[in-house]
Design goal:
Elements: H1 11-22, E1 29-36, E2 46-47, H2 51-59, H3 65-73, H4 85-93, E3 99-102, E4 108-109, E5 116-121, H5 122-127, H6 129-152, E6 158-160, H7 168-182, E7 186-187, H8 190-196, H9 206-210, H10 215-225, E8 231-233, H11 239-255, E9 262-265, H12 270-283, E10 290-293, H13 299-307, E11 314-317, H14 319-322, E12 332-340, E13 346-348, E14 365-372, E15 375-383, E16 393-395, E17 403-405, E18 411-414, E19 417-421, E20 424-425, H15 432-444, E21 461-464, H16 465-481
Parallel strand pairs: 6-7, 6-11, 8-9, 9-10, 10-11, 15-21
Antiparallel strand pairs: 1-5, 1-12, 2-4, 3-5, 3-19, 12-13, 14-15, 14-18, 16-17, 16-21, 19-20
Length: 482
């Protein structure tokens, strides 16, 4: 399936596009922002991910002849063509020409902050909404989950091996990519390894052991076939007997000039079994053989096993990582922030709602992050047209009672960076290992209480006060005029 097509969209994007074209608004300049409203996993932060795939998708943004042929077959409710030929001809000639700014992948981010800002012809900025949300929502969710899992593992390697439980082939490859950004050391997914250069790991399954008369025979055969890749899965029958069999084959390997890498525990009481397995391995002269643990692990189970002093060195995490586990999706949205009028002046736009959290922020937004003594102190969303004042007060995006002033001595950085200008890519994309290193470094600047798995402290992220006041005035005006 080719997903690198403008048809990776909801039909209403195309019906709106046809409407913009019909009423002469297609080329009117507009600004949209992609953001989320709530942190996933009841956590204290999220990790931005997906921009690399967004860039690849946007660089291929064009309607092919077969796309337009398909759109021409779609009927309206009266049975006549939904789209007129003039509109389809317009799409055939359309060339990608938007400006895109984005927060780099691997950066820690917070609710209401634009992760991506799109400025350009209204029709183009509208047509890309669904694909951008599809890519960024999923990868940001999984990168965040991976960061939580890796923090729980306290620096020990995490192997992502969720391919068989992932949401389809595309979802599996994207999940492997995002999990690596969040800190995973490797993946079992060979295709993701090929596409993204992620280290791949894996040895054998229970079926290998079961296909032989005895476990000892199975381990011996595997050692002969793969002497440089021996991690024995020891829980097919009796786990501690499995460890003893692994030790026996490990000694034979050593005599042949090879070394057993380790064992894997995939069931049972992982804390107790890992302690007993470590004792057996050490006593037999294999102190460097690592113990891999798997079995529906997530950050909470890993943290619990750590508290129980489990002797695990490598963590295999699958289903609950690549699917997001308890969180089905990141609720990212894409909202119009401003539109340029006939006089060439930018008019800020606002979406109202009965729910305060759903009221959008107006203007052409940028995010300024403040740092003091090596620690992130707060993020202010401000309007680039108006600029950001020297002395900043950050207003909570939803709670009017909560605001915070930033110390004047704090340094700052604007997070949205240029990616496209007039449809041409201007950003040099970092490699995946560089993005992972950036994520790791970002997390060191968050106060430890913000990284707690349960009931984390809230990071200060919101709207700069003058933009907040303009927003309140626009709300008051909108309620009287609409």
């Amino acid at each position: 399936m080719n997903s690198n097509t403008p048809l990776l969209t909801d039909l209403y994007q195309l019906t709106m596009a046809a409407g913009y074209w019909k009423c002469g608004k297609a080329e009117q300049e507009a600004v949209f922002h992609l953001f989320f409203r709530r942190l996933p996993f009841a956590g204290g932060y999220a990790v931005a991910a997906g921009l690399g795939d967004v860039v690849a998708w946007l660089q291929g943004f064009r309607f092919e002849a077969s796309d337009l042929e398909y759109l021409a077959t779609l009927p309206g409710r009266d049975g006549k063509p939904l789209f007129c030929q003039g509109f389809l001809d317009y799409l055939a000639q359309m060339k990608w020409q938007c400006d895109v700014d984005a927060i780099p992948e691997g950066t820690v981010v917070f609710p209401h902050e634009p992760l991506i800002r799109v400025k350009g012809p209204l029709i183009q900025a509208q047509l890309i909404e669904t694909a951008l949300l599809n890519i960024v929502n999923f990868q940001t969710l999984i990168a965040t989950k991976a960061a939580r899992v890796c923090l729980a593992a306290q620096g020990e390697p995490v192997l992502e091996f969720g391919l068989r439980r992932a949401q389809g082939p595309d979802g599996a490859v994207m999940a492997s990519r995002a999990a690596f950004i969040g800190g995973c050391a490797s993946t079992s997914n060979v295709l993701a390894g090929k596409i993204h250069g992620i280290p791949v790991r894996g040895t054998h399954a229970h079926s290998w052991v079961m296909s032989f008369e005895t476990e000892l025979e199975a381990f011996a055969a595997y050692a002969e076939a793969m002497p440089n890749n021996c991690v024995f899965l020891v829980d097919t029958y009796d786990t501690l007997d499995g460890v003893r069999h692994a030790v026996e084959i490990g000694q034979r390997l050593r005599e042949q000039g090879h070394e057993m890498a380790g064992i894997r525990l995939d069931s049972g009481d992982l804390a107790w079994l890992s302690v007993e397995a470590r004792r057996l391995l050490d006593a037999a002269g294999f102190p460097d053989a690592f113990i891999v643990a798997s079995n529906d692990l997530d950050e909470h189970l890993i943290e619990s096993l750590k508290h129980q002093e489990a002797k695990v060195n490598v963590w295999g995490v699958g289903t609950r990582l690549v699917t997001g586990g308890e969180q089905a999706a990141l609720g990212g949205v894409y909202k119009l922030g401003a539109i340029r009028n006939a006089q060439g002046v930018w008019e800020p736009k606002i979406k109202l709602s009965e729910q305060a959290i759903k009221v959008s922020n107006p203007g052409i937004q940028q995010v300024r992050r403040y740092m003091l003594n090596g620690e992130f102190r707060g993020d202010a969303i401000y309007d680039e047209e108006a600029g950001c004042p020297e002395v900043v007060e950050i207003q909570h995006p939803v709670d009017p009672q909560r605001s915070k002033s930033i110390p004047e001595e704090a340094s700052h950085e604007d997070l949205l960076k240029p990616v496209f200008r007039n449809g041409k890519r201007v950003m040099d994309l970092p490699t995946l290992p560089q993005i992972q290193a950036h994520c790791r470094e970002q997390l060191t600047h968050l106060h430890p209480t913000i990284k707690r798995l349960l009931n984390p402290h809230s990071y200060t992220a919101g709207v700069e006060r003058s933009l907040h006041e303009r927003k309140l005035a626009m709300i008051a005006t909108a309620k009287t005029h609409h």
